[in-house]
Every structure is written in structure tokens, then in C-alpha cells.
Fold this protein.
Amino acid sequence: MIYIVHGENLSKSRALILNQQKKLMVRYRQEFNIQDTSPEDLVEKIRSLDIFGEPQFFVMNVSGTGRSNLENYINALTQTPSHVTIVILSEKKLPPTNIFLKNARALKAQVLENAPLPQGTSFDFVDAVMRKDRLSAYKFMKRELDKDKDPSELFSLLLYGLRSLAQVKFCSPSCSSMNSYVLSKQKGLCSRFDEKSIKNLFSFFCDLDFKAKTGEVHPEVMLTLAVEKVLNS
């Protein structure tokens, strides 16, 4: 079976490949770059036998080939035995004119295009948490984690958001130097928190940070606990 996996979200492409490998119960896969492999080498690979008698699973990275003449590779791929799996992987979205996509039907290949990563900034996540919008908070948290954002970094941004809120709630002199847009936004959030809850949140965040740094709490668990504490405050 031949798969063509392409798109901007490489981590999702890798997850798709791993999922297929697990479905087929193949323990090992071989990865190689098309630029380091001739059509003859490709034929030899797909016709070879595994020393343990297991089905062969190959991942051929075709990223960066551009307008190279790859016709001979198409001919080589048509010789893929039914028990062999080969994944044609591109780390970017392939255009409709790409030779592999154009020949997908002839190769009987299944095309899997992953969706691009959602755009936006980490402050979307912070804003959603601080306005206690549970659905958006977890939606944006997942988006940031899918972009390989460090949970500890997101926790720090939450702490920054809490600090900005406290500055306005307690009428700190530092408010005078705060950006007018940020100041207006924080004033809108103040009604959702009383002074006692803000103090409790600072104490809770400090305790979580200590536990994470001492290994008592995993960073992702720390982030979820922090989010829940704000949402329920």
C-alpha cells in the first residue's frame, strides 16, 4: 500500500505515520530521503525481504524536490508489492501539479493531507482563561500545545496575565505606564475577580510552580490545574 502524506503540520504527519504502523503491527520502519536514493535503489528496497519475515514499512521523504524530474520514481513505485507499505512524506503541502499527487490514482495511493496549524498567539489562550471562557480556554490551550509550545511557558504567560489583572485591581502605580489597550482589557476583567480570589490565585500559582520545579507535578498537569483554578475562582 502506498500513502502520500503532506501538509504544514509535520508533527501531525508523523502521528499519522505512527498510527498506520501500529495498525499494521509493524515493529520497525525504514526512513530515507529521495534525494539520497536512486530509482534503482528504491526498487531494491521495496522488493527486499525483512530478515525477520515481517512486512516492510518505508517512509520516503520527498521534501525539497521542487521541479526535479521524478518520473523514474513513479515507475519504481508501481512495482511496490501488496504486502509492502511505503509512505511518501512531504513536510510541506504539495501542489496539485506535484508528480506524486498527479499519479496517485495510477499508484493506487491514499492521499492524507493534514490541516495547517491554527494561527493566533498564546495570548488568545491567556485572555480566554482570564475571562473564564472554558471552551475557548481549552481550545486555545490545545492549539498552543499542538504547536509544541512548552506548558511551562504557557503557565508563565498565565502568571503574567494574573499579574496584569492584579495591577489594575489593586490600583498599582504601574498602571500609569500600561498600554491603553491592555489597561482597558484588564479593567473589563476586574469584575470577574475579587481581591481575595486574586490573592488566592497568586498563592496557588506559586505553590504549583514550586511543585513543578521539584518534580512533584508534571508541567502539563501544572498548566491544567492552573487553568481550572482560574476558571473556578
Notes: The chain has a mean pLDDT of 89.
